[in-house]
Amino acid sequence: MSAYPPPLPAPLYQGAANTWECDEGGHLNVRFHVERAMSGLAHFANILEMPHAFTASAGATLVPLEAHIRFLKEARPGAPLSMHGAVTSFSESEAHLCLDMRHGDGAPSSSFNLRVAHADTRGFRPFPWSARSRAAADALMRPLPDHAKTRSIDLGKPPRADISRAAAEAAGAIRIGGAFVTPEQCDAFGRFRGEHFVGRISDSVTNLLTLWRQEIAARARDGGAAAGAVVEARIVFRRWPRAGNLIEIHSGIVEVGEKTLRLVHWLTDPESGQAWASMEAVALTFDTVTRKALAPSPEARAAMQEKLATLSV
What we know:
By secondary structure, the protein is α+β, with helices and mostly antiparallel strands. It has two domains: 1-149, Hotdog Thioesterase (Thiol Ester Dehydrase, Chain A), CATH 3.10.129; 158-313, Thiol Ester Dehydrase, Chain A (Roll), CATH 3.10.129.10. 20% of the residues lie in helices and 34% in strands. The protein has six helices and eleven strands. Strands 1, 2, 3, 4, 5, 6, 7, 8, 9, 10 and 11 form an eleven-stranded antiparallel β-sheet that branches. Helix 1 (30-47) runs antiparallel to helix 4. The N and C termini lie far apart (41 Å).
């Protein structure tokens, strides 16, 4: 008998962690966890009686509004991965969907609790589900698995409404990244794909944490190095860039724990100043040989405490 709970009812993504998708930590990078969730969401749409929902000719699609993510057990190169899903709540034009990705032995790898809108594909405005979709959702209704529930992030706190480039600077955030949206990063509707929001943060966060990780690296043993890993995150999707748009990432550390940092990232449009998305993440530093979390010195924690930003998701 398996030590892990049985999979959720809807079969979604299935594949493996590819070597070129793994980062300096030797495991599947966060963007590729999210890429698999976006693939899973497309399969979910089909199961919800919305065929072709992510094609250019679709009349309706699923638009991610928020995502709560738990990263539970790292996926190393070659690891087989499968994702199953369930509906955890359903309203007139929205739903909460759990997408649960597991290792080959059934151990949870990452879980995604997505709030999505059933929307048209012109203005991406929400509208009521069809009777067929409601019936399909009823058959897939399940409680949220324990391992997918929030641990360190308060999902009851409403997303901040005043996010902007100017507000980021006023809050003490640091510009850690700048990117340009290319056509190949966009979906069939011409919108920036969900995994690339996280990808731009992943590419840029070293500009915020290099000195922190250098201090911790001295504690790595047996020839190991220090690398970072996100263990929990909340993403709020606000607007969807298109090819040619610019993205800036302004970030700050908002809490220092014994082994973890809580970070908030704001993705904004430097031309209009408006927000594209925001993300709260709980991250740790680990030894790449022992795979164990590393703790900074008390002096490093105290120094970081003096640099906290006043950001929220």
